[in-house]
Predict the 3D structure of the following.
Amino acid sequence: MKKILNVTINGTPYEIAIKPKTTLVEVLRNELNLTGTKRSCNAGGCSSCSVLVDGKVVNSCSVLALQVDGKEVTTIEGIADGAKLHPLQQAFLEHGAYQCGYCTPGMIIAGKALLDENPNPTKQEVKEAIAGNLCRCTGYVRIVDAILATAKKLQEEAK
Ligand code: FES
Ligand code: FES
């Protein structure tokens, strides 16, 4: 029997009838066509499916959708300002911090959560923030550089 999920995603409220065992990533990708959130291991081990739930990073493959009932979810589609990319998205582009791109949405979500909480992180803190995010292509150096450059840029803009 289906249950009703009430959730706000990227600022839009949704009421969706789902089977109780449906995961959050399945709702995002299959019900709402928000395919920016990637599903890779589907077992909580790679963080390619990361989204923000009330501002905290969550592996959306490892959460039942009904667990986010009444909460606010932000996906990679929700962090840009209209047509203007989020500074992290821009920095990933400028630093070439991606290859196949499959890990990129999760990396950017992890970076956003970090900078929202700690606007001036050290390199070590950036590495720790993305420690659960697997990338099989880049070697991580450019990803760390992109997040640090974003922090620096946002700090300068805030002066
Ligand atoms: S797909 Fe969710 S952690 Fe790998
Ligand atoms: S860019 Fe391919 S997995 Fe990270």
About this structure: The chain is about 35% helix and 15% strand. The chain has a mean pLDDT of 97. Residues 87-158 form a domain with the DNA polymerase; domain 1 fold (CATH 1.10.150.120).
